[in-house]
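ugh ok so i messed up the first submission bc i forgot one of the chains. this is the corrected input, ALL of the components this time, i swear. 518 residues overall. if the numbers dont match what u have on ur side tell me asap before i send this to the collaborators (the ones from the other lab, u know who)
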Amino acid sequence: MKTIFLTTAVALAAASSLAQAEDRITVSVDATTSGAKIDRRIFGQFAEHLGSGIYEGIWVGKDSAIPNTRGIRNDVVAALKAIKVPVVRWPGGCFADEYHWRRGIGPERKPSMNANWGGVIEPNTFGTDEFFDFANQVGAEAYVSVNVGSAPVSEAAEWLEYMTSSTGDALGAERAKNGHAEPYKVAFVGLGNESWDCGGGMTPDFYVSQMKMHARFDRNYNPAQPMQRVAVGPNGGDTAYTEAVMKAYQGHSWAWGIEGLSLHSYTTGGGFPVSQKATGFGEKEYAVILKDTLGMEDLVTRHSAIMDKYDPEKKVALVVDEWGAWYAPTPGTDPGFLMQQNTQRDAVLAALNINIFARHTDRVRMANIAQMINVLQAMILTDKEKMLLTPTYHVFEMYVPFQDATFIPVRLDAGTYTYGDISLPRVDAIAAKGTDGKLYVSLTNIDPNRPVEIDTAFLGVKAKSVTGKTLAAPKMDSANTFDAPNTVAPKPVTVKLKDGRAVVQLAPSSVTVIAISL
Ligand code: AHR
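and heres the new structure output, hopefully the right one now
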């Protein structure tokens, strides 16, 4: 009897220590070495004339009952300021290669068709001057994509002249007449968009010859703001544009250059046309989407290796200026408006991608999630006067301390989350020293079923105190709605500091950021 009891006790103890081993992961943050600065621009946004991304999402007009400043929604601006949006890419997207800027300036706006997105009328009431007003209200840099596909080079060159020249220049004088005497600051110019597809279906070589002319003639006349040129780059894993553009760059003359190469990659969980549901999905779809999104690591690594070949000094940034989840549109909405709900799964997806960009911060120096408001994986949803913040917004909010922070390497045995034949790392983590001197660690529990205890050790520094915030949700497809806007919102989490180590429990499918004072 005694033997049986002992055997049972030993078995129970072994089982419980196995469970403990499985449910506790040790993370080691090595503050004796530091990496590159995490460019704040990896938290950039993308706002296209698409659905209600601009009209209603940003622009309501000066006479609207919705509180606004010169036609731009105050609630949206305040929310975006709170996450310190560093840069906004505009006006597209596919829209950019059919955009004629002159229709969107001055007192009389000329409507056009938005052929790409729903075939609706584009009123052009939100044009160049409104965009810069918006960017300035938010405190973000401007990233303007010019029309390479359907306009002569002179059109883009003159747009840059309108935006950046002094008032001695006729186009600068026209801008002043439209209310802005000071030249605008164009921090980035996109030389086309998806020229391999909606931007004109160009072969890599044809695009390179167009791109060189734009890189030469789309000039910045404002000495107060250096401007970086971003060439069209790869579509996901296709390396043809990467090779062609970077090869051309390697042999470039004094007359032209580029500072960025764009990469577009969406998480669809099965390619296009999209079919995955934004809400009401099961664990299988959860696992499929997160596996797909983790493919960003391979994409960035592969394109970076090609870039290293032609640009070993890493002068050209890899700019992931369209990324995020793209699901089947919300039932009952115009499919051309790309409206979708945003859930806890998207919060996890956002954290995983940001972590990948941060780990490659020596090459990935800008990223722009698609898109900012009401479109695809949005930060904000609006319904007339109502506005809500999505789970993705909250991740960007929790990651603010990582903007311009110094990357610090992390070691962990991530464990495994398995669903069917899909196996993913169970936990993902990054660390950085913030500009405020604190150490920040972001911890993502991918597993939607099992909580996990994280025990963090710090090498080279002594933790004095620690606080934490976590974004968890009742279900992996929990979303914020206009009736219940705070279902998914960050909450403080208890972090125990013991012998200089920080111990925190991560809920299933959650994102947690801890701040360590040294
Ligand atoms: O973000 C929606 C669209 O996706 C963009 O307009 C285009 O560049 C991409 O195909």
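quick check: The mean pLDDT is 95. that seems consistent at least. The first strand starts at residue 24 and ends at 30.
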